[in-house]
C-alpha cells in the first residue's frame, strides 16, 4: 500500500511539473511578442525608414541566380544524364530513318528512334578535341545555325570562343565565290585601297542544322574544310567529317552541344595565349643574355 501511495505522489508530481512547463513556454513567447510589438510601436515609422539603404545588395533575378549556382557544363564534366536531360536521345520517326545511322540507334519506342547516348558522348568529345586543336593552332571556327530559335545560341557560342557565325541565311557562293560575296563586306586594305580586300576561309565549320545546308556542306567539301555537325536519325552522317549523333530539333540540346564546343575552342585559345606568352618571355631572356655577353 505504501508503494502504491508513493507511486501516485511521484506521478502526480511529474504531471504538475509537466503542466507547469507546458504553461511556462507559451507565456514566455507571448511576453517576447508583446515586447517586440511595444518596441515597434514606440518607434516612429517614416517614409525614409521604409526605403532600404544604398548599401543593401540587390537581389539577382532567379535565372541568373540559378545559372550562377549550377556548375557550368564543360567537355570534362559532360555525362550521359546531362545529355538525356537535354533531350538529345530522341530521334525522328522510324518512317524517316536513314539506314546509315543504324550503329547510333539504341532502339525504337512508340515509332520513334532512340539514339544511343554512349555514342553521342564519344563523338561529342572527339569533336571537342578537334575544335580545341584548331583554336590552339590559330584557326578560325565558323558556327552555322539558321533555324528559328537557333540564332541567339549560335551568336553566343561564336562570341564565347572569338569565332564567326551565320545565323540568318547561308548565301550560296560564300566559300566558292567568296571574293564577290564577302569582298563587299570586307574592310579595304589601308596600304593600297585600290587592291581588292582580302577574304579568308574558315578552318572549321560547326553546323547545328545540317539538313538545311546542303550547299554549305558541298562548298566546304570543295574547299577541304572539316565539318562538325549534329546528325539526327534522318540524316546521313557520312556527309560530314565529324558527326555528333543527337536530336537536332531540341533547342536545349543544341544549345548544350554548342556551349560545349565553344568551351573547348576557348580552352584552345587560352592555351595558345599561354604558349605565345611563354615564347615571348624566352625571346626576351635570350636577348638579355646576348646583350650581357657583349
TrEMBL record:
CDD domains: RPS2
Membership in a protein family: Belongs to the universal ribosomal protein uS2 family.
Protein name (database record): 30S ribosomal protein S2
Keyword Magnesium: no
Keyword Ubl conjugation carried by entry: no
SUPFAM superfamilies, alphabetized: Ribosomal protein S2 (SSF52313)
Record's compositionally biased regions (Polar residues): 35-44
Biased composition (Basic and acidic residues): 274-283
Entry keyword set: Ribonucleoprotein, Ribosomal protein
Biased segments, Basic residues type: 284-294
PROSITE patterns the UniProt entry points to: RIBOSOMAL_S2_1
Region annotation Disordered: where it falls in the sequence: 35-57, 272-294
An annotated GO cellular component: mitochondrial small ribosomal subunit
Any Gene Ontology biological process: translation
GO MF: structural constituent of ribosome
